[in-house]
Amino acid sequence: MLKRVFITGTDTAVGKTVVSRALLQALAATGKRVVGYKPVAKGSKMTPEGLRNKDALVLQSVSSLTLPYEAINPIAFSEEESSVAHSCAINYSLLSNGLAQLGEQADHVVVEGTGGWRSLMNDLRPLSDWVVQEQLPVLMVVGIQEGCLNHALLTAQAITSDGLPLVGWVANRINPGLAHYAEIIEVLSQKLPAPLVGELPYLPRAEQRDLAKWVDVTRLGATDPLRAAV
């Protein structure tokens, strides 16, 4: 299993946090020290302790290391700021330093992105620019719904075109009524240049559940020709 992995999705709201939770739980079950990292979070809410993002809090809750919130989520935008976050300067060095510090303390760091692969962060730059800078292997979450084949293939192409290894993908059934689910999984398994690491069924309140059994961390990078020692 890779020491660091970046979780992206075919779109926003496809289940990156749920899959990150599942991955962290599965790794922790092997006795490893694991930590989740949400470098940039939008839609955060003000609390007595400061801005807090619900996705980052999920990652913090399943990390096996006890760390301050700011170590998990160094940059948080409020709901009001999120609409104009592209005009705010994001210090990529801050993100890199935070990642390095977590890597010194944990066996595995699961890094959750914001939005999709090309979602813009600041100065019309996507967070994927930072992922390329860090040379992080990528796990893609596919929200299984109408149109997901096109979204998944385009996202996979963008990741590999950026020179990064796509080490796996996870199917998240976000539409329980979708017909031809099995056929979609079969096509994606044939077309994507990475192994299927897990299938998450439609689960109410999934962010509160034990999801470890739905992913197989031993398959990460199992058939990816671009896998490198990262």
TrEMBL record:
<dbReference type="GO" id="GO:0000287">
    <property type="term" value="F:magnesium ion binding"/>
</dbReference>
<feature type="binding site">
    <location>
        <position position="55"/>
    </location>
    <ligand>
        <name>ATP</name>
    </ligand>
</feature>
<comment type="function">
    <text>Catalyzes a mechanistically unusual reaction, the ATP-dependent insertion of CO2 between the N7 and N8 nitrogen atoms of 7,8-diaminopelargonic acid (DAPA, also called 7,8-diammoniononanoate) to form a ureido ring.</text>
</comment>
<feature type="binding site">
    <location>
        <begin position="112"/>
        <end position="115"/>
    </location>
    <ligand>
        <name>ATP</name>
    </ligand>
</feature>
<comment type="subunit">
    <text>Homodimer.</text>
</comment>
<keyword id="KW-0479">Metal-binding</keyword>
<dbReference type="GO" id="GO:0005829">
    <property type="term" value="C:cytosol"/>
</dbReference>
<protein>
    <recommendedName>
        <fullName>ATP-dependent dethiobiotin synthetase BioD</fullName>
        <ecNumber>6.3.3.3</ecNumber>
    </recommendedName>
</protein>
<feature type="active site">
    <location>
        <position position="38"/>
    </location>
</feature>
<keyword id="KW-0436">Ligase</keyword>
<keyword id="KW-0093">Biotin biosynthesis</keyword>
<comment type="pathway">
    <text>Cofactor biosynthesis; biotin biosynthesis; biotin from 7,8-diaminononanoate: step 1/2.</text>
</comment>
<keyword id="KW-0547">Nucleotide-binding</keyword>
<dbReference type="GO" id="GO:0042803">
    <property type="term" value="F:protein homodimerization activity"/>
</dbReference>
<feature type="binding site">
    <location>
        <position position="17"/>
    </location>
    <ligand>
        <name>Mg(2+)</name>
    </ligand>
</feature>
<keyword id="KW-0067">ATP-binding</keyword>
<dbReference type="InterPro" id="IPR004472">
    <property type="entry name" value="DTB_synth_BioD"/>
</dbReference>
<dbReference type="Pfam" id="PF13500">
    <property type="entry name" value="AAA_26"/>
</dbReference>
<feature type="binding site">
    <location>
        <begin position="172"/>
        <end position="173"/>
    </location>
    <ligand>
        <name>ATP</name>
    </ligand>
</feature>
<feature type="binding site">
    <location>
        <begin position="201"/>
        <end position="203"/>
    </location>
    <ligand>
        <name>ATP</name>
    </ligand>
</feature>
<feature type="binding site">
    <location>
        <position position="55"/>
    </location>
    <ligand>
        <name>Mg(2+)</name>
    </ligand>
</feature>
<keyword id="KW-0963">Cytoplasm</keyword>
<dbReference type="GO" id="GO:0009102">
    <property type="term" value="P:biotin biosynthetic process"/>
</dbReference>
<feature type="binding site">
    <location>
        <position position="112"/>
    </location>
    <ligand>
        <name>Mg(2+)</name>
    </ligand>
</feature>
<comment type="similarity">
    <text>Belongs to the dethiobiotin synthetase family.</text>
</comment>
<dbReference type="InterPro" id="IPR027417">
    <property type="entry name" value="P-loop_NTPase"/>
</dbReference>
<dbReference type="GO" id="GO:0004141">
    <property type="term" value="F:dethiobiotin synthase activity"/>
</dbReference>
<keyword id="KW-0460">Magnesium</keyword>
<dbReference type="GO" id="GO:0005524">
    <property type="term" value="F:ATP binding"/>
</dbReference>
